[in-house]
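Please check both lines for our workbook:

___
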Amino acid sequence: MATTTARRTGAWTPWLYLAPALLLLGGLLVYPVYQLGLISFLEYTQAQVSGGEPTTFQGLGNYATLFADEQFWQVLLATVLFAAACVVSTLAVGCALAVLLTRVRALPRLALMLAALGAWATPAVTGSTVWMFLFDPDFGPVNRVFGLGDLSWTYGRYSAFALVLLEVVWCSFPFVMVTVYAGIRAVPAEVVEAAALDGASQWRIWRSALAPMLRPILLVVTVQSVIWDFKVFTQIYVMTNGGGIAGQNLVLNVYAYQKAFASSQYSLGSAIGVVMLLILLAVTLGYLRILRRRGEEL
């Protein structure tokens, strides 16, 4: 009996250590998500905030209004395509530079690491402002160097998205680079040497030797990149002045901000936030399920 009681007590010991962190996460994550979902089912506009009108339960009415809005579907499609382009570009740049770090000497490696970490540590508002200056049609050095005249990068829809994509990749690739580089350093040198002796190119070594061994790490950086890039706000808001001309560069996060704060439709903004949360959960769980079917360790 004493042994059984000791085992039961020992089973709860890890949860006791985790309790403070779980309580903190509950306060910082669970409660705000609960409030977000609650407001999405209510009629909650400026009239309700000021107390002029009572708050009423709308059920799925806000979601019906949102899904009937053609602009929502256009913004959703633009968000998915933009996030996908950012994720692919970030992974490509980060993995390529991680491999490069293993090929250069100590001093160039240190310089590249410091430059990358500097980009990573730069606040999004600051980085966006710097990139706006670099591509400014009047004073920016990029147009002068490439002879583009007074080309306005933020005027066209696709050029504005491309400019924001470059800034997002610039501030995101260091995480991928450092993480993948650490994973490559943990791979036994004999594996790479054997592939090189067999005449494999650098691309073939990466595709056939390194990438399969780095799948758990690539999973982490991919999911993180999907979450970060799908909910981009600051770069779009700053670099396109709130979503571009006539909202041509809107993404879901900026669209939700406009609905909630510019139009005082807080319930619609909350509904957009819930939709984003469900999409990210579906993508993450779907990705994990695919990897489990393939027998990968998570």
The mean pLDDT is 87. Residues 2-40 form the longest helix (39 residues).
